[in-house]
Amino acid sequence: MMGRCMPPQPLLSRLASKRRWLSGGSASPSILRNPLQWYVTKLDTHPITTKCISSGLISGSGDLLCQSIVAEKKSQSATLEFDWMRTLRFTILGSFLVAPTVHLWYGMLMSRIPGNTMSAVAKRLFCDQGLFAPLFTPTFISMLTVLEHLTSPFDQSIAGTDVNKDDNNNHGNSDLYTHLTDRFKNDVPDAILVGWSIWTPSMAIMFAVVPGKFQVLYSNCVGFVWNAYLSWRTHEGEEESTQ
């Protein structure tokens, strides 16, 4: 009928695609009935999207773990108040920086240095921890610092308190260059050293036995602990070092 307003076809296609992604499709397992098999299927059908979502959730969870541990240690109040904007920043970086980068990096490593021999594993491990990690760690911390400055007005409006109450989280009061310089000097070296102690044995196991499509998930699970450390290093640890 001429009077009926039909939704645009591209919109219907996008909605149907999202519905299929959540349901798993007619031939795929349901996320509620078999979440593990559903995830494995999504790694095959939507690898980038699946890895980005899972990486973001794990990165944000690592920050929440850090905030919980620090709040319990301080025992300042009975009520735990999360800094949700801080968690959102880690989630964004996990989804849009970590997941795509390591997806491409691991894919390139496995294609350029194939095999599970000791020699191949050692070569991939050297490239990952000797070349990639010292570059990616300062990149992550730099992007986190930039996001903190960009979202500083939102932090202040959400808190609804005096903007000078917490100088450590109120990065808008210092210029970006100074904050980046301080973090490169104080946070990056420690983060690289701690990262080697965590990631070197973890990546040795991954390159030896973990299938390619599960490598981003594996690294994200290790990254749960790693992100909790990074959250502490760039916030509470930074605050303690200035006291």
Description of the structure:
The chain is mainly α. It is 75% helix and 0% strand. It has 10 helices and no strands. It has helices spanning 9-23, 35-45, 47-74, 84-112, 118-150, 152-159, 176-186, 188-209, 215-233, 236-241. Helix 4 (84-112) packs antiparallel against helix 5, helix 4 crosses helix 9 and helix 8 (188-209) packs antiparallel against helix 9 (215-233). The relative contact order is 0.12.
Set out the fold topology.
Elements lengths: L8 H15 L11 H11 L1 H28 L9 H29 L5 H33 L1 H8 L16 H11 L1 H22 L5 H19 L2 H6 L2
Helix pairs in contact: 2-3, 3-4, 3-9, 4-5, 4-9, 5-7, 5-8, 8-9
Shape: globular
Order of helices and strands: HHHHHHHHHH
Q: Name the average pLDDT.
A: 83
Q: Which structural class do you get from the secondary structure elements? A: mainly alpha
Largest sheet geometry: none
Please count the beta strands (DSSP E, at least 2 residues each): 0
Please indicate the percent range of residues in DSSP E strands (runs of 2 or more).
under 5%
Low-confidence stretches: 161-170
The percentage helix is over 70%
Helix count, per DSSP?
A: 10
Supply Rg. Answer: 21 Å
Distance between the termini: 73 Å
